[in-house]
């Protein structure tokens, strides 16, 4: 199933990362200063490769034929120390020039629909505290703090 979103006349899709689009997707960057809150696409791909036990599922986010973001989840994984789940939004990245347009919100909505369709009852993610952190974004989507901290990041939950 290929999630598609019509947003102000724009179609967002999740696409697999291939040899043909890898460089363009890895060129998607967040605003300066946000790098301390979200790792790059390139680092995310390395993390996915080196952590298969986290059941990584990742896709580029496209607006038409242009990569505008990246998303990575632990997909239906058995939780254990160091691995949150079963559904954990591991990375969400929206390119600098596409931020503030509702793309991040809609990407999360698309992820939520997929997790629900797979039988998930909650979506977890985490954030690094600090000025400029994504917590206000996640709180605005309905995420609540769980009281857990994992590797210095505050764990939050969205009940589905």
UniProtKB/TrEMBL annotation:
Signal peptide from the UniProt entry: none
Gene3D superfamilies in alphabetical order: 3.40.630.30, The crystal structure of the spermine/spermidine acetyltransferase from enterococcus faecali
Residue ranges of domain N-acetyltransferase in the record: 12-160
Protein origin, superkingdom: Bacteria
Name of the protein in question: GNAT family N-acetyltransferase
Organism expressing this protein natively: Allokutzneria multivorans
């Amino acid at each position: 199933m290929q999630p598609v979103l019509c947003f102000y006349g724009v179609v967002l899709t999740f696409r697999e990362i291939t040899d043909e689009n890898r460089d363009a997707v890895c060129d998607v960057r967040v605003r300066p200063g946000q790098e301390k809150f979200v790792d790059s696409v390139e680092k995310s791909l390395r993390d996915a490769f080196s952590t298969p036990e986290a059941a990584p599922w990742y896709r580029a986010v496209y607006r038409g034929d242009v990569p505008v973001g990246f998303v990575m989840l632990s997909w239906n994984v058995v939780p254990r120390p160091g691995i949150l789940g079963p559904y954990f939004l591991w990375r969400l990245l929206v390119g600098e020039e596409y931020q503030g347009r509702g793309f991040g919100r809609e990407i999360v909505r698309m992820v939520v629909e997929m997790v629900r369709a797979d039988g998930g009852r909650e979506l977890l993610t985490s954030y690094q505290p600090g000025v400029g952190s994504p917590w206000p974004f996640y709180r605005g989507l309905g995420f609540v703090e769980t009281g857990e901290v994992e590797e210095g990041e505050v764990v939050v939950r969205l009940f589905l």
